[in-house]
Structure formats: C-alpha cells, structure tokens
Design a protein that fits this description.
The protein is an alpha/beta fold and 353 residues long. The protein has two domains: 2-167 and 336-349, Rossmann fold (3-Layer(aba) Sandwich); 176-323, Glycogen Phosphorylase B (Rossmann fold), CATH 3.40.50. 47% of the residues lie in helices and 15% in strands. It contains 16 helices and 13 strands. The chain has helices at 10-26, 44-50, 66-84, 96-107, 127-138, 147-155, 168-181, 185-189, 205-208, 211-222, 234-243, 259-268, 277-285, 300-304, 315-323, 340-350, and strands at residues 2-7, 28-33, 57-58, 88-92, 112-115, 141-144, 162-164, 198-201, 228-231, 251-254, 271-274, 290-292, 308-310. The strands form two sheets. Strands 3-2-1-4-5-6-7 form a seven-stranded parallel sheet, sandwiched between helices. Helix 3 packs across helix 4 (96-107). The longest helix is centred in the first third of the chain and has 19 residues, at 66-84. The structure holds uridine-diphosphate-N-acetylglucosamine and uridine-5'-diphosphate. The site of uridine-5'-diphosphate has 16 residues, from helix 1, helix 12 and helix 13.
C-alpha cells in the first residue's frame, strides 16, 4: 500500500511526526511538503527535532494570496499524484495545503484520508473553516479526534468512513514532552522563572489583519503583571510592522521556537493566551489555564473541561478572563489515549473505517 501524505504548515509537521511513524510500519509513505511554511524556524526545525523523514517532494509554493497559493499547489500536486499513483492521499487539518491535497486527489479519483476531520467553528469568514468543510465532504476516510467532531460530521450527513481516533496532537505531546523537559535550562536563558510568566501566540488572520484587533491584543498583553513571552509568527511580525504597532516592555518578542521548546514554555507558563487551535489543546493537555483570543473555538472540549476561556480581543475582557482563571482538578479525557496515530495507520491498512 502506498500513502501519499501532504504537509505544508507548522502544525501539520507536528501532527505528521507521530502519524508518519505508524504509517511507515504498514505502508510505503511518500511525503510531500507544499512549501507553505518555509522559514527554517517554521519548517526545518520540526523535521530535524521530531525525526520526520525528509520530504520526497518539496513543491516550493509559499506566500501569495489564497487563490494563487492554493492554485499553484493544486497544479503541482496533480502531477505528483499522477506520477506516484498512491492508494491514499492523506491530509491534515485545515490549511490551504490540506485543501489543495484533498482537491487534487479527489479529482484524480484517489481516496482522501483526512486527519482531524469534523472540526467546525461555524464561522465561514475563517479561511480554515472553508478548507475543513470542503475537505471533509470530499474525503473517503475521516479521522475525527473527538466525539464532538463525529457529531459535527453527522449533522452534515457524513457518517460513512468516519472513525473517532483520538487526537494525534495529544500523541505528539505525550511522545515529545520527556525530551522537552530535558531543556529546562532554556527558561533561565530566557530570564524566565516557572509560573512567573505568560506565554502568548497570535497568528489568526482575523486578529492580525485588522489593525484594531491587533492593537487591542498587544495592549492587553502589554498591561499584564508578569512578562509575556511571544514567539512571533511571521504573519504577525509583518502586520505589526505594517500597522506601526509598538509593544510595551513587558512583552518579550522571540522568534518562533521549535516544538520541544514550545512544549517547555507552555508547560511552565502561569497561563497561556492564544488564538492558535493547537496551542489551546496543548494548554489543556498540559493542564495550564488558557485564554483564547477569539470569539469561538472548534475545540469545545477544552472549554467544557474548564481549562480554556474565550475572551476575544478586548483588553477588559482578556483581563477579566485571566483573573477568573481556575485550575480544574482533572485534565480533559476527550482527546483520546495517545494511540490516535496507531488507529489512523491501522484503519488505512485494514481498509476498515
Ligand atoms: C496558515 C494556515 C492556518 C494555520 C497556520 C499555522 C491557511 C489558510 N492558514 O496560516 O490555518 O493556523 O498556517 O501556523 O492555510 N510566512 C513567512 N514564513 C513562513 C511562513 C509564512 O514569511 O515560514 C508569511 C507568508 O509569506 C505569508 C504569511 O506569513 O505572508 C502568512 O502565511 P500563510 O501560510 O499564508 O498563512 P498562516 O497565517 O501561516
Ligand atoms: N508551535 C511551535 N512553535 C511556536 C509556536 C507554535 O512549535 O513558536 C507549535 C505549537 O506547540 C502547536 C503548533 O505549533 O503544536 C500550533 O501551530 P499554529 O499555532 O501555528 O497553528 P494552528 O494550530 O492554530 O493551526
């Protein structure tokens, strides 16, 4: 069996780390990197640190508008899929690379396996929501991380090929946390003490592309009583420069970090403030309270377990959310048992959904 996997953006490299290992036990995997993320600290670092095999193809498609990027990926992926003639094309999550992989395969009648199927924000202004809906509707095998995701698919009439596997990001956290713990010295190097800083990430288009939202978030972060470490996504850096937003001294801007350093920073933070899907979940896995800088989340279980609170971008609401944070007694059990990647591979090889 041959599985052609399409990745391109940071969270997809992290998801592919545990899944690729399992898939390669049962199939030949052809790994395609679209090039959507291309800086060394947005791409190479994950391949090196997490032992992800070198991509067989690198399409070099990065930057540009949604249409230009997705179109260029489609054209290149079509060629590669035709050349490799895989039994499955596997895609992850909800980026433009996911859509291009799913669409190219479906048009060539190659079955699509979607890891992280069934996520919904019900906000069609998010490019990711459009990507998710389309890819779920053209997939043959849908690996849903949670019960909620299965229900969202059911509500859209998708029941065939759906399997609740657990969350492959939970697998990744369990797999790499011990190595992250070995880097404890890094906190001191950054001048940070455990429990005495906040960690923030901001990159969602709706927050970064609107000058008011971005200004408001930075104002809120700048007013906190502890230092705020902000590993800055290149999109956000560009927008801060373009809008001429100046940051207060309490915000420690750093370059995007590798996954091991990120897990360490997350696990020792007093709380996390983020608009990232993956970081919300990791806060929950690591039992660190989280304030989400959005009006909705696809990951309802993080809120139901009490570890996550929605606050949008208004400084007053963010302050209130932070002061109201609690530490629930239990972690969330909604994300599986750390064996999601194994189930994905087994399902593909057995042909059973
Ligand atoms: C993309 C995904 C988003 C995901 C995020 C993960 C889409 C529509 N969005 O958003 O769902 O949460 O990745 O991080 O696919 N850039 C660089 N260097 C890089 C990567 C990006 O300079 O290594 C620049 C690009 O040139 C572009 C901007 O950052 O100007 C945004 O990149 P893009 O891949 O379009 O979207 P993300 O915001 O990263
Ligand atoms: N991440 C990382 N370094 C960083 C910021 C994030 O390794 O500087 C990891 C984070 O731990 C999580 C993933 O990247 O595993 C989340 O990706 P991102 O926030 O870019 O995208 P999203 O999950 O919102 O799609």
């Amino acid at each position: 069996m041959k599985v052609l996997t399409v990745v391109g953006a940071r969270p997809q490299f992290i998801k592919a780390a545990p899944v690729s290992r399992e898939v390669r036990k049962v199939a030949q995997e052809v790994l395609v990197h679209t090039g959507q993320h291309f800086d060394a600290n947005m791409s190479d670092v994950f391949f090196k640190e997490l032992g992800i095999p070198e991509p067989d193809y690198h399409l070099g498609v990065g930057g540009g508008s949604h249409g230009a990027m997705t179109g260029a990926m489609l054209a290149r992926l079509e060629e590669v899929i035709q050349q490799e003639a895989p039994d499955w094309v596997m895609v992850y999550g909800d980026t433009n690379s996911t859509l291009a992989g799913g669409l190219a395969a479906a048009k060539l009648h190659v079955p699509v396996a979607h890891v992280e199927a069934g996520l919904r924000s019900y906000n069609r202004r998010m490019p990711e929501e459009i990507n998710r809906v389309l890819v779920d509707h053209l997939s043959t095998r849908l690996f849903a991380p949670t019960e909620t995701a299965v229900q969202c698919l059911q509500a859209e009439g998708i029941t065939r090929g759906v399997q609740q596997t657990g969350d492959v990001m939970y697998d990744a956290t369990l797999m790499f946390l011990p190595r992250a713990e070995e880097r404890l010295d890094r906190l001191a190097e950054l001048g940070l003490a455990p429990g005495e800083y906040y960690l923030a990430t901001v990159h969602r288009a709706e927050n970064t592309d609107d000058t008011q939202c971005l200004t408001s978030i930075m104002e809120a972060l700048g007013e906190l009583e502890l230092p705020v470490v902000l590993p800055l996504h290149p999109r956000t850096r560009k927008q801060l420069d373009a809008f001429g937003i100046r940051l207060s001294a309490g915000i420690r801007l750093i370059e995007p970090v590798g996954y091991l350093e990120m897990l360490l920073l997350e696990s020792r933070a007093k709380a996390i403030l983020t608009d990232s899907g993956g970081v919300q979940k990791e806060a929950c896995f690591l039992q660190v309270p989280c304030v989400t800088l959005r009006e909705e989340t696809e990951w309802l279980e993080t809120m139901e377990s009490g570890w996550n609170t929605l606050a949008g971008t208004d400084p007053e609401r963010i302050r209130e959310a932070l002061s109201g944070l609690r530490r629930p007694e239990r972690p969330s059990m909604a994300f599986g048992d750390g064996q999601a990647s194994h189930r994905v591979a087994k399902s593909l090889s057995s042909g059973i959904a």
